[in-house]
User: What shape does this take?
Amino acid sequence: MWGMACSPCPTPSCLETRISQVTSYIVRRTLYMLPLLVIVSLISFALIQLMPGDYLTRSRLNPDITQETFDEMAARYGLDKPFVTQYWLWLKGIVTRGDFGTSFETKLPVFFTLFMGNRLLWTLVITGSTMLITWLFAIPLGIYSATHQYKASDHTLTFFGFLGLSIPNFFFALVVLWILVALLRVGNYGLGIGGLFDNRFIDAPWSLAKLGNFLWHIWPAWLVIGTSGMAGLLRYMRGSLLDTLSLQYVQTARAKGLTERVVIYKHAVRNAINPLVSILGLTLPNLVAGSIVTAIILNLPTVGRAYFTALQMQDQYVIMGGLLFFSLFLLIGNLIADILLAWVDPRIRYD
Amino acid sequence: MTKRLTLGMLSLLLVFSTSAVVLAQGYETMPEDAKIVELGGEGYEDLEPGVRGGTFYISVFGSGPKKWNDVTSHETSTTRYTNTMFRGLMMLHPISGALVTDLAKSYEISEDGLEITFHLRRINWSDGTPFTADDVLFTYNDLIFNEDIETDSRDGLELPDGTFPVFEKVDDNTITVTMSMIFRPIFNQLTVNIMPKHKLAEFVHKLNPDVPAGTFNGVWGLDTDPAELVGLGPYIVESYEPDQQVVMRRNPYYYTYDQNGIQLPYCDKVIELIVASMDVELLKFRNGETYAWGCRASDVPILKREEAVKGFTVTIGSGVYGTLWFTVNQDYGLGEDDPAKDQLRELFRNIKFRQAISHAMDKQSIINNLYNGLATPQWSPVSTPSPFYAGRDSYGGPVTEVNAVTYEYDLETAAALLDEIGILDTDGDGIREFADGTPVEFELNTNAGNTLREGFCLIMQEDLTNIGLKVNFNPVDFNTLVTRLLGGTIYQAVVLGLTGGDEPHGGSNVYLTTGGLHFWHYSAAEEPYEYEKRIEELFDLGVGTWNNDEAFEYYKEYQRLYASQDLGMNFSVNQAYTYVCYNFVGNKEIISPVTSPTAVNSIARDLFFLKMD
Assistant: This one.
């Protein structure tokens, strides 16, 4: 941006100060994260303890297992110890050995259990592409809606936006799959539903056909998750742009005789987009934690789904690992949002 | 250019030749000890010999396997794979459910009944290593009886006197099992899967002190390269993609052949798609992506409509193992000295009260409303498919229900029973009162989110209101419910289900007063009623004989006694097994509730074949 007329820091020395400002700001914020994460972990650990029962409760009604075996397992898993001791041992493991605990179910390290296979990668691909598509649609539609305020098209957009927001994702996902199977009978064309690939591509190496098949399996996710996130963004963009359009500098721009196009895109939108940048940062954690229910119905391998399984099983250290990971993403998202905001809006300073 | 081409050809050749070596694995000729299945013959009447080849696709509900280790596995999402990869000395016949030999070729029981000699088949593990008596001894002595190892199989092998059977090697292909007493259900426990010693011994602390204690518990986890897995079953896991699928390929050394000398399994591969929603499983089946599915009763109408068009068949089988019941707590408020609670507990302890409940339970309405008509009334703690079910005429005989103890749905009889014990509606408000005028009112719990059990509760609530009892239905979280139930004196009434099996002794943890799940009357451990003492005796008699017909008589008396005098649980209905399968699948008749209560048979998968090209 520097070198442009509107840049806040036209000289190189000024830029250096700014960079060092940014660096110290980032370092400071990162340091703040540590105590925050400890507090988050303590609260989450306490919440897990407040849940009725524990990992072993689920199999209590199995007639084949005796009480002695249960006691033995409770001792093995450390579930017989008081909450504070359990938390302390867990924290000590992280600090001294970098050991975040083991899953009761798989007997493997918690992060392996959560990220196993290519879950993390798939999660980023699936939610990343969905977010991208949502934003690519929501911003222009928001601008359109604002510039056509109270017209029929504005109302229509708002209506469909809210419709997408109000249909529960699990239900919408099921409806989409049902339409494909029962009405369109895609099975007759050899097409599958849910998951990442059709049966015939499961074992096959990557090819163009396999990529195409992946797209066939991913579009319902774009549709279901995309429509639910669209309304909020669209309304934010619309509201923010309407606010900006009523400001005096926009009137000035119009008075100067600039075309409406330039007024809106060069002047108004550039300022109206600021609040959305904060939102972008805040939605970053959704990249890894979002759309659990949709992933379950559409059978997508996401970290959120693995985390949900751990919650159901009360696999407590996997839950803790997941919570820490998601919190870290949230904090990083916040930090990025703040930095971006300062970057797009020179009025904001790092102190 | 030519050089590059030649190089390419050469490497291709190399690849093909190595894969050819891999494919050539297996027995050169049928092993002498092969197990031969006469399809169409005795025990397999409805089946036919098939052809080899193809991939069988099915879906599996849930979150996928948790490990590949059979010994340390806890639940069916894992055992459905380990039961396919591994085999035991004995197995349940896939159709009749009777115990038959598997890895053991034959066995003899000594005259005093205390020693069983097993002759093992001379066959190979899937990597070509011979299977021997050492593998069996390793599995029982070093894994299952090893306190260092976490396993659910140990408890079942403990004899009533607290000792364990002793496994000893006679020669490479013969072992003996010696017991301190006759314990008939031991054969059920000998279905435990045998693990390969040559692959796993190094991870057992007892055999290899270099590894820390407990190492084995984490062995063959999901981080293991599937190429390391070695088994005796028809299929071995080849690859696993979390939340997507498990791919299993045929075991080249599988020891079962059909009568034409064709080595089983018929299909080259089985691919299980992991699906976390049953509604999506239904859609995937209808879309032709999976070939067989254990559908729910509620799916039957939709599937029936499509049967002809899509070329599949819905089959409604017999009952499944397991119980669904209503129970009142005969220990409610025990030791709290609260007169109101004492009064309610005394009522719950009155057999006439529990009989009144049985008469008021509208089982037909449960069957029609909750199961689409696909269920039958249940009265016994032993499930219908078991050969020991007292509704049969004899051990494994036809179900005629001549011995059944049932309570007809009859509100008048129920009301008369309540009148008889002095629980009357004195103020005419429709709710009966105790002698002191307090209305009879109690709370009914079940686990929230289980629509079937919630439906049953609502029907019960209505049924009991009809005879003047006020029931407050309150569904609670599963774990809360379990804690209350096992707490003994806290809950008032509960609706829940338990799993079951073919062996009545499997219920000893529930129906004996000393059982950890005797939750309707825990205090009976100290002060048992007469009928509870008799049930205890009958259980001891039932396991103390090798004669199944004799055992049947003991278990028949126990079931009748339970239904007439104990009634700790008021049983409701037994769900019929329903499944659906495309018509191009051969031998789909082996899909049986007897060996696979919840899903498409994992034991007899070797017999499926595909009729299409």
Q: What stands out?
A: Chain A touches chain B through 55 residues (CB under 8 Å). Residues 9-117+312-351 of chain A form one domain. The first helix of chain A runs from residue 12 to 50.
